[in-house]
Amino acid sequence: MAVSRSFLMVLSLLSLAPLCFSHKGNGGYLYPHFYDHSCSRAQEIVKSIVAKAVAREARMAASLLRLHFHDCFVKGCDASLLLDNRGSIITEKLSNPNRNSARGFEVIDEIKSALEEECPHTVSCADILALAARDSTVLAGGPSWEVPLGRRDSKGASLSDSNNNIPAPNNTFQTIFTKFKLQGLDIADLVALSGSHTIGNARCTSFRQRLYNQSGDGQPDYSLDQSYAAQLRTRCPRSGGDQNLFFLDFVSPTKFDNNYFKNILASKGLLNSDQVLLTKNKASMELVKKYAKNKKLFFEQFAMSMIKMGNISPLMGLRGEIRKNCRRININTN
Ligand code: HEM
Ligand SMILES: *[C@@H]1O[C@H](CO)[C@@H](O)[C@H](O)[C@H]1NC(C)=O
Ligand SMILES: *[C@@H]1O[C@H](CO)[C@@H](O)[C@H](O)[C@H]1NC(C)=O
Fold first, then answer.
1. 192 lines ligand 1 (CB under 6 A)
2. Where is this site: Transition state stabilizer (predicted)?
3. For residue range 207-253, what is the model confidence (pLDDT) as tens digits?
4. Which residues does residue 246 pair with via DSSP β-bridges, in sequence order?
5. Pocket of ligand 3 contains residue 216 by CB under 6 Å
6. pLDDT tens for residues 45-65?
């Protein structure tokens, strides 16, 4: 009893730590004009390369948006996600949520090379991820916001935090909400940010359980529209086809709008984690209904929640470094 109580105390202290220290201490706040003097063309360079990549493949907007999320939930928004295996670093790219799934790393590399050419050793990989997420949202038709900047890059990665902190699609509502709260995010953030699933794809393996054996009794998930489920089964069989791709929002798969919430109301949310926002909690149900009815409210909350997510434990001041190559830490040569 005493043990589990002090364990909980430690947990709650840990969850408060980012609010008390990292964000406010160590050289102040992130702010949108951080690169105005040191690299005035930084934002337009990021935007032009993201635009080119999205023109080549519409899905890239979704993939880049997701990278910022998977970065921020692991050691904060510090580009730890971008590090490859090397020396003592174990890459996060092979964690359960990322393996065969996270993508867009080549686009980040291209942006970084262009920025190193324009203003060497100035713009962090963590800020590139935050800007690319915003630009991707705008290019897909979503809201815009000014991105607070000044993050620095980590000198390490955490495979275990990547496995543990990023919610899984079959986590319960409570587990997912707890993982958001541990990052300082609330229910409005959870529901609005889940609205990212208005664009992009998911693999069969991410929702198969719902189609065949939701609760271990051989029955499908009856909170999923059964004709939609039958359609999904044709390309997501009981076994095989793990990597087959499906639209997260089948109505408008590349357009950032509020159809994601309308789909959930029609029992056509693709992932279990999408549908439980309606079925397992009163407050989140109200928010799903609100955003389905009012795209403007969704867009406003999404922009606020993205800024909030982007503020998770940034490295600032003299902490961390500005990587020259987003895939590896700088070699110390002095
Ligand atoms: C609430 C908990 C969340 C869960 C359980 C979850 C889970 C998933 C899963 C399983 C996929 C499909 C991966 C695959 O099959 O390869 C996915 C895709 C995606 N997620 Fe989430 N996600 C969550 C929240 C978020 C948030 C907060 C964002 C962004 C702010 C986000 C953005 C995306 C995007 C854009 C895609 C499509 C990526 C692509 O097409 O490359 N998700 N998510
Ligand atoms: C969730 O999915 C994972 C991976 O497919 C599986 O190992 C686990 O048993 C599932 N959890 C639940 C609660 O169904
Ligand atoms: C469903 O899952 C349970 C436990 O995960 C397993 O024991 C059972 O054999 C599965 N049933 C079917 C029909 O796949």
1. no
2. 66
3. 999 999 999 999 999 999 999 999 999 999 999 999 999 999 999 99
4. 202
5. yes
6. 999 999 999 999 999 999 999
Range of the domain at 127: 28-166
Please count the other Cβ atoms lying within 10 Å of the Cβ belonging to residue 96: 13
The CATH number of whichever domain residue 191 belongs to comes to 1.10.420.10
When divided into structural domains, the chain yields a total of 2
Domain final position from 125, 148, 166: 166
Eight-state DSSP code of residue 20: I
Per this entry, what is the length of the chain? Answer: 334
End-to-end CA distance of the chain: 51
CA of 328 to the centre of ligand 1 (A): 25
- Stretch 247-270: mean pLDDT: 98
State the pairing for strand pair 245-247/201-203: antiparallel
Please say if the pLDDT value at position 13 is more than 90: no
| pTM greater than 0.85 (yes/no) | yes
Q: Which residue has the tokens 């795209």?
A: 295
Residue 135 counted as domain residue: yes
Give 220 Cα–ligand 3 centroid separation in angstroms: 11
- Across residues 254-271, what is the average pLDDT? 98
Domain boundary among 166, 183, 200: 166
